[in-house]
Amino acid sequence: MNELETRERQRRRALWELERLQPGADQAKLHLAILDDIERRDREEPIGEAWAMSIDELREHVPETEILGRDGHHFVVVLDEHIPEPWKNRFEEASTGSTRLRQGCYASDWRRFLRLWAHEMKHLEAHRTPTLGIS
Question: What is the DSSP letter of 83?
Fold first, then answer.
């Protein structure tokens, strides 16, 4: 496994663990330390051209593409090659086991990932600053 995959797998696991905890919980400290270390590595050793891209920038940058299936049904997808790293890997880690087409993921799954990422970052911030009361 390469460094990007390792980093994003660790990030995903820590975010999933935090999701089940209330801000301020003692059990969150380990996961917050892991995420702090990953973010430090992101700054010091960025992987991928879009490492600092915001969700809004990413939403504008990644186009949705309509394709015609073999059965004549139209699908709206996000082609794999349009998702810049490290976001492509982040999305893959968050979407493990999801149904997809050969060309890429369903656009609705991509949009859901972007919404959930924003929610996860708010929840993470609430863990880092429990007095905010955001969850």
Answer: S
